[in-house]
Amino acid sequence: MKLLPFLLILATTVLLIVRYRIERDIKFLLSSLAIFAFLIACAALTPMLRPILPLFYAHGVALFIGWGGLLYFLLRKRFVIWLTAAPLATLGLFLILSIVEGSRYEEVWFG
Q1: What crossing angle do the helices spanning 26-44 and 86-101 adopt, rounded to 10°?
Q2: CA 67, CA 40: separation in Å to the nearest integer?
Q3: Stated pTM of the model
Q4: pLDDT tens digits, 51-95
Q5: What's the angle, vertex CA 93, arms to CA 91 and CA 94, rounded to 5?
Q6: Are 54 and 90 in contact (CB under 8 A)?
Q7: Of the candidates 2, 87, 3, 80, which has an alpha carbon nearest to the alpha carbon of residue 37?
Q8: How far from the centroid of its chain's Cα atoms is residue 20's Cα?
Q9: Most buried among 1, 8, 22, 75, by the most CB within 10 A?
Q10: Residue 16 and residue 21: Cα distance in Å, rounded?
């Protein structure tokens, strides 16, 4: 199961390099790299969602949707923000639920 995220990252990196070599558009490359870094950062925050298991699974689905948004942007040059921001919505919902109900991360946020 850990092979799939590695293959997604590798395939996306190769697609980024190929698209840049074909078009030589630095603005497109930088915006693609920014979206790519955002999705990797959201993926790195995934273990934080483990206390709320349904939200953890929803975040995994949202990451795949976000990756689909990145691939759509790479292939069609059309940025669909709600596809890419789907993981951000689940992280925001986790923060709201943690503040309202509580979790093991209060010490980290509130000192």
Answers
A1: 30
A2: 10
A3: 0.81
A4: 888 889 999 999 999 999 998 998 888 888 888 899 999 999 888
A5: 65
A6: no
A7: 87
A8: 21
A9: 8
A10: 9
Q: Report the pLDDT value the prediction gives residue 98, as an integer from 0 to 100.
A: 79
Per-residue pLDDT at 103 = 62
| Two structure tokens written together for 99 | 């503040």
d(CA 15, CA 12): 5
- Written as six digits, the tokens of 26 are 């630095």
Q: Does residue 4 carry a pLDDT above 70?
A: yes
Contacts of 43 (CB under 8 A, 6+ apart): 5, 63, 87
Short-list 80, 91, 94, 85, CA closest to 39: 85
Which position has the token pair 């190769």? 14
Residues listed for the chain: 111
